[in-house]
Every structure is written in structure tokens, then in C-alpha cells.
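Protein modeling request. Please complete all fields; requests missing the sequence field cannot be processed.
Requester role: graduate student
Desired output: 3D structure, C-alpha cell encoding
Chains: 1
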Amino acid sequence: MNTKLQERILPPQITKDSPVQTDETVTRVTKIRIREIAKLANVSIGTVDRALHGRKGISEQTRRNILEIAKDLGYTPNLAARALSVGGSVVRIGVCIPLEIHFFYDRLRAGILAEAGRFAPIGVEVLYRPVERLGQGEKYALEQLLKDDIQALIITPGDPQRLAPLLEKAERKNIRVICVASDAPRAARSSVVCVDPRVSGSLAAELMGRFTPCRSQVAVITGMMMTEDHRTKVHFFSQQFSKFCPGGKVVKVLEGHEDEDETFQKCFSLLRDWKKLGGLYVTTANCLPVCRAIGARGLSGRVILITTDLFAEMVPYFEKGTIAASIYQRPYVQGQTAVRLAVDHILRGRPIPETSYLNPAIVMKSNLHLFPESQSFHPSKR
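Delivered output (382 residues):
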């Protein structure tokens, strides 16, 4: 689906309080600066334009040389002038994220579209090709996006090993790949925007260790171990738990594949087979079936449950004590950040950081009301 964002805002660097900075003035000053750069670099104005705005058709050495000269001159591409001089779309960003689990990905998508909407007046366009679930159909969706004229790709890689060749192909085509919510660290990509899963896993281990007595047996419910975010959280939780709970042990790791029925059945059986289980850590937003399984076994408040993220449907389980704490990953901000990195790089020539880790929030019953997601956000119907 080709979604062109239409929200109107004042273009950056031109405000109603700056009457001397007319469209004609901005364009003229920008062209003078570009001519200076072209003369110093001994290239054409068109080549400078391609370098400054991340376009194809020039060598990396030429691009680096031009960007260095522009930096020395203190030149920053003016987005408003760019919009005036180029018709149609300036930046096309491909987006490939799952539809499910919608509690998390609806917020991630909302952040992406809101931030892209801020730049819509200067020609930023989103090409949205979602997949049904994490890891399902993402190779085909990515192949289709690479056929479009995109300059950046925002993707949640469910199976990073399988996607690696396509991600590397995208980077070779000068398409900046920005992973969100999970990483593909062994593949070529420009950046990842997420809460560091090492921190999430370790934080969950510390919380669990504070809530449970020594020598407690606990289990982990995850999505898919092939997904970098899930695998890393499981690893660091398992590694750190015994440090905070002396004699404590992770007795089981279950993969629910982000499927509610599968997760419920596996968790229901786990609670039957491990009578002394003291706690459960859910690494994904798929916590509702775990809450239901705990309730069905009559163990609410007796098995310590540490979850991930926050949405309105979790509130009753906080209130009755089923959920002890949750690690909120700020999906809306992740989406905003990914778009901002792409636009700043393509239009302003700013380098993309290799990682952009967000600080997670710990949500408990006492501060639950401070998070708008617990009150006002209701997942949209698709």
C-alpha cells in the first residue's frame, strides 16, 4: 500500500516569524552555497546535489569529498529549499513491520507515520508493506520494496539470517537500512533503534530476583529464538537471574511464535508440569495468553510475572496482581526515531549512528496511571 502522508506543517527553517526568508531568498542562498561546493570539489552542481541528498550515481569517494567540503563550509541542506526546487517525492521510506502483535506494532507504526507526517510538506513518502507476523513473508515483502525507488528501509527482522543477503543488497544500492524493535547485527545495516535487549533481559532478571525467594525456579516465554531481540533477552535473563536470586534457576524456555493460542497452551502445560515454578518472564508483548493461563491455573499473584511493554488490555492484570512489573520499550518513540534518522541522513547528510538505544521504563501498579497507553490507547481495527 502506498501511503502518502498529508499532514501540513510549516517547513523546517521557515516560520511565520521570519518574513525576510521568502521562498525566493531561501532558494537563491541555497544555490549559491551549492555552487561554492561544486567549484571547490571540481564537480557539477548536479553531483553536489546527489551527494548532499544521498542519491545514487556517484562514487563513495566523491560523495565523501563533497560532504567534507560542505561540512567545512558549515553548509546544511535546507529542507524547505529542497522542497521548492524538486517536484514530487524527495524521500521514499520503505516500511516492513508486522501487523501482529498489534498491541506493540500499532504503536510502532503510529510513531513512524506521525514523524513522517511532519516531513510530508517537503516530500517525505512512506511505502508500507507489512507482514502478518514476525518472520512470516518478510523476505517477499522486502524483495518488493527493493523494486521500488526507496532511499531508506525501516524493518523489524524476524529471521535476520534469512534476510541478510537482501539487507546487504539494499545497502549496496545506497538504501539505508534501519532496524526497529529487533536487530540484524550480522547483516549489513546502517542502524538499529530499540531498547537494548541485553539491558531488557538483565533488568527483568534483577526484577525477578527481587520478587522471588532464593533458589526459585523460573521460566521464560519468548517469541522465536531466531529473532535477535528474543534470543538476546533470553540469554541475558538466564545469565543474570542467579546473580540476583542465589540458587535460582531458569528451568524452561518456551517459544510461543507470537501466537496467542500456542502460547496459552504451552504456558498452561508448563504450570501443570512445574508445580514449584516461582516466576515467568515474557520477552514480547504477547503476555495476555500467559496472564490467562496463570488465571486458569488459579495462580494469580502466586507466580511472579514480569512482562514486556504496555497496552490498555494489560491494566486489569496489573490491578489484580497477576503482572508484577513490565519493561516498557516505547514503540512509538522507536518509530519516530527511525524516521528522523533516515530523513536527517538523506536530506541533511548527517551520519546515522550504528545503534540508537532507548532507555526502558519499569511499569508497576503504582505508576501505571502515568502512562497514557494504559488509559487512552486502543488498538485500531484492521
